[in-house]
Amino acid sequence: MSIQFDVRTRVREDLRDLVPYDTHPYPNVIRMDLNENPYPFPEAVCQEIIKKLNSDVFTRYPDPGAVELRQALADYNGVAPDNLIAGNGSDELIQLIYLTFGGNDRTVLIPVPTFSMFKIHARITGTGVEEMRTGEDFAVPVQKLVERARAGIDIVVLVSPNNPTGTVIPPEDIMYVLENTSALVIVDEAYFEFKRETIVSHLNRYPNLIVLRTFSKAFGLAGMRVGYLISNESVIKELNKIKQPFNVNSFSQLAARTALKYRQLFDEQIGMIIEEREKLFMELQGLSGVTAFPSQSNFILFRTPVNSDKVYQELLKGGILIRNLGKVPGLEDCLRVTIGKKEENAIFLEKLGVIL
Ligand code: PMP
To answer: What is the distance in A from the centroid of ligand 1 to the CA of 35?
Structure first.
């Protein structure tokens, strides 16, 4: 006789309404949905990675301390290796922060709209979530935020440049938050390389600061899953107690440190992305009824006069995948397009023009 096992009732009660991540089953489309770098990974970097591959990369466990990668990152960011932890994408590090500093009886304050994983990982780790809507221009109202943070908030999230809006939080506003709350403040700088404004240079002044970065955007390594965080040694020490020992695989560590070594090669790609972004912004603004929001990142958020579901579906039929954000409160009829190569942007614009 088989036992009774109702798996649904065995799932943690607070997680029963979660849905799996959309697996994007669209093989033959132009991908302009995930804010990746559209250009080929530089050949010279590729060749060096291949040259350095050896049997140990496959047979041995990865370096749990990612020592060489952290040394390279320390040089890149003007900090010490002990200020750094590498992660399996910054997604893993968001979860690690909540596992360490969140959980039951702890609450995170998230200005929205922003990157959805901050809320999802909070829920997964049992961390309470308070959301705070930003204004029409998506500026984070820092005074209001600090007032809220003082009333029992443990963690504050600031994303700059923000995804999906492209908005930057002025450094003085970030410092205002850091100086006026004892909450842990996560500053997500995933898109740092497109704006080059950072709070990292002030790290020593703020014991409550954690900065998040990623190799998935400017460095074109989304497939390798490498992110990192920067904080003071005492915070790093606590996070290291919770971190999975072999979280970043050997191949990814090698790829990330080689990409960093050749970072000038990516500067050219970043320059082209920024140039294309400005062009695309003007062109979107020129489409009748469209509002494009200024972006300091590698994507543009825009609102259409046509229902965003329709725009999304029609573009997909035409072979272009972008992000439909119409269901996000405050972003009704909005979509986000990742800056592609010149020719991809042209196709996107042409197809969008036909739909509108
Ligand atoms: N933070 C922000 C603001 C992002 O937009 C993203 C990716 N969309 C991430 C973090 C996650 O990046 P990773 O690939 O390093 O997990």
So the answer is: 9
Percent of the chain with pLDDT over 90: 97
Section 18-42 average pLDDT: 91
Q: 224-242 burial string, b = 16+ CB within 10 Å, else e?
A: bbbbbbbbbeebbeebeee
Rounded Cα distance between 66 and 86, Å, is: 7
CB 184 within 8 A of CB 101: yes
Nearest CA-CA partner of 73 in 218, 223, 213, 250: 213
Closest CA to 343 of 30, 115, 128: 30
Q: Given the cut 0.90, state whether the ipTM is greater than it.
A: yes
Q: Using one digit for the tens of pLDDT, what is the confidence trace for 176-188?
A: 999 999 999 999 9
Pocket mutation for ligand 1, best pick of 93, 163, 252, 339 (most atoms within 8 Å of C-beta): 163
Could you tell me the pTM of the whole model?
Answer: 0.97
Q: Which residues have C-beta within 8 Å of that of residue 294, sequence separation ≥ 6?
A: 166, 167, 281
- Cis peptide upstream of residue 164 (ω within 30 degrees of 0): yes
The residue type at 1? M
pLDDT digits (tens, 9 = 90+) for 213-270: 999 999 999 999 999 999 999 999 999 999 999 999 999 999 999 999 999 999 999 9
Q: Which residue has the tokens 């949905």?
A: 33
Q: Whose CA is nearest to atom 6 of ligand 1?
A: 190
Atom of ligand 1 nearest to the CA of 214: 15
